[in-house]
Amino acid sequence: MSPKLHPVRGIDGEATINLFVASLEDIRNPKHCPACLTGCLLAFFHNTNGAYLLDNIAILRENHHLFLDRCVAFLTLERDLAELDAASEEWIGCECDLNDALIRKLHDILPKGDEPDINTVSRHVVSVVHAVLQPVREKGGVHKVAHNAEKAAKQGKNVLWPTKPADLLPYGPDSSVRAMGYWIERAPSALWIGLVGSMLEICKRTMIPALITSPYIPEKSIGIVEVPIMVHMVRTAEPRRKSAATPAACLADVKRCAVFFLQLQTFCDRHELLKFFSGQEDFFFRAMKTALDFVRDIARDVKPSTARLDVIGIGETEQEVSYIESVFVTLAATVHCHLGLPFDSKKYTALVLAHSLAVLKTDKDPAIIAFQAFYQLAFHERCCSPGCTETFASLGRKFSLCSGCSRVPFCSKQCLTTAWKYPNVAHKDVCKKIKAVALATKLPSKPAPKDVLQFRDRCRAEIDEADIADIAMHVQRLFKEMSSAFDEEDKIQFLENVSRCETLGIEDVA
Ligand SMILES: [Zn+2]
Ligand SMILES: [Zn+2]
Ligand SMILES: [Zn+2]
């Protein structure tokens, strides 16, 4: 029997969820008023202190897919600004059946006086979906999602939500991303940006074209970085002023933005990244500078006792700060370097300039090309046997990695055998070297672009330069050889994907 939601305020969680699902059968015309729907979301999500109920979130993921699908549909159904404006004015009156005890209780959850509207509902829906996705992204994004379904089926358990990346974009990437852009334009918040970041991590490149052309998301995602920092500064300057935003909450908000920017940098190529920031460069560098200048101030005020109140997991404050700094420095340096901007220490933080200089110097360094190769091998989701064109998508599963090096995927044993002695690009020539380099550099199995400099430095200290160059050249030959099996159009696409690591500041390998 599946576990029941823990009741809060004496309200039955399952009945509340059924009511919410039924109410949003037609997303555009909910059957209940905003107060009632907000009550539904609060009923099982927060305890009376306002803290998230982590157990209930886990139960939602396992047992209430329809509810979560409705939540996502609510957020991704395309409604433009005019429609959202109209909805927030029209959809306020209550015609709910207050003779029903449950409905009456739900109406009483929100304090009187502050009449909720469609934005209130959306804010709470974002909060629920964000919290549900948090464990997914912490455990490795889309692979985990695909893996979850398999594992659960084997154990006869319920599949955890989302069951597949497309669950997050029910109306397709273009329409869904546009819809979220309208919400964000209307009521920007770090929570929204964090949600888009988590979705991006799971859906990967699916969302990128829509994101970079979104009329609202680029500007709002940059602008929102400074908001929690300002909130904290006001709070520090006027300690008597009442504010709900604790230092922990402010830091969590900055981190939500960092999560988004890290995903953006990971999945965009150079052109996409520049397009995303195009026209907002000054605004962007100012936001990065503000964040880097003040994030440690906020961290100093975080009290350990409040740390776990927020589901994003502030946990080790020092770790969180390093994470935020590393994301912002790497991103700002990459954009700075790609744009060929001057080394102006008044305008840019010293850390960013140092990093940008390093990115510049790394052009054509074999260690960088080798890193690019590792990065590509980790994410390109293809069989690496020359002549084979199978992908994770075409066979509907992940491939095993070569057991020798644990880095190179093959769709079958036979493909590994073919690749092992393939003329000119025999895997046996590099298998041991790949393993040795990965071990010596402590390279994660899914490297992030920010790992590149550490990788390069460890290569210099630990590895014979000739071996590095050998791996770099080998993988370039391999990708060329692999692409020759495709027809012309696919070949171009493949080589484009291979050169997608340009975010690292490297030229095409093709
Ligand atoms: Zn009502
Ligand atoms: Zn194959
Ligand atoms: Zn191998």
Automatic annotation (TrEMBL):
Classification via Gene3D superfamilies: 1.10.220.160, 6.10.140.2220
So which residues are the signal peptide here? none
Q: Which domain of life is it from?
A: Eukaryota
Keywords (alphabetical) are:
Metal-binding, Zinc, Zinc-finger
List each copy of the MYND-type domain by range.
Answer: 383-431
One Gene Ontology term of the molecular function aspect: zinc ion binding
Specify the protein name: MYND-type domain-containing protein
